[in-house]
Specification:
Layout lengths: L2 E2 L2 E2 L2 E7 L4 H10 L6 E8 L5 H8 L3 E4 L5 H14 L2 E6 L8 H6 L4 E5 L11 H7 L4 E8 L9 E8 L6 H25 L2
Parallel strand pairs: 3-4, 3-6, 4-5, 6-7
Antiparallel strand pairs: 1-2, 7-8, 8-9
Helix pairs in contact: 1-6, 5-6
Bound molecules: 5-O-phosphono-beta-D-ribofuranosylamine.
The site of 5-O-phosphono-beta-D-ribofuranosylamine (GRF) has 13 residues, from helix 1, strand 7 and helix 6.
């Protein structure tokens, strides 16, 4: 990281969301800490009612709602905004859409995602329900690079927790979310350090 006029030249991040935005919140909070090496410059949502958008507005972070029905158009619009903000890393945080392949190729190694399971196990949706149904002893979360296959890119960080006898998919969901908020930041630092 270079210094510009004595100021740290931070890495600019874009966060893509679809809903609640608790991971977005945690990433923003880490970015505001002293000595943070990144800024959240842009929040993009495919859902105008996403709770995370309220937070972006409150923090005065540029935010855009994108219509995902035409993915080609989407990419052009998004690409322009990413360029304009000099975005170095895209973090998908509860983003429920599949990005077009050529977009993924353009940003290869620069798009990461968080998933609430110990990948490669339990790709896709309803992970906690399936984990409980299958009487797993452990679960956790994973931050990985995004490639063209769902939840299949190279793993950056993973954290495991034990499932207790009384856990339900709801209690496990809460426990996993807590650790998501920690490892996403750690994974971002790891990726940025290697750029
Ligand atoms: C998280 O559990 C994340 O792992 C998954 O979607 C959820 C998003 O939650 N991809 P939030 O919107 O960050 O609160």
């Amino acid at each position: 990281m270079k210094k510009l006029n004595g100021e740290l030249n931070k890495f600019n991040l874009a966060v893509f969301i679809s809903g609640r935005g608790s991971n977005l919140k945690s990433i923003i909070n880490f970015s505001l800490k002293k000595n943070s090496i990144y800024n959240v410059k842009l929040v993009i949502s495919n859902n105008k009612d996403a709770n995370g958008l309220k937070l972006a507005k409150k923090r005065k972070i540029k935010n855009y709602v994108i219509n995902f029905t035409n993915s080609k158009k989407l990419s052009k619009k998004v690409l322009l905004k990413l360029k304009r903000e000099n975005i170095k890393l895209i973090c998908l945080a509860g983003f429920m859409k599949i990005l077009p392949y050529y977009f993924i190729k353009l940003y290869r190694g620069k798009i990461i995602n968080i998933h609430p399971s110990l990948l490669p196990k339990y790709k896709g949706l309803k992970t906690h329900e399936r984990v409980i149904q299958n009487k797993e002893k452990y679960t956790g979360c994973t931050v990985h690079y995004v490639n063209k296959h769902l939840d299949s890119g190279k793993i950056i960080l993973q954290k495991k927790i034990k499932i207790s006898k009384n856990d339900t998919h709801v209690s496990i969901g809460k426990k996993v979310l807590k650790i998501e908020h920690k490892i996403y930041h750690q994974a971002i630092i790891k990726v940025l350090s290697n750029l």
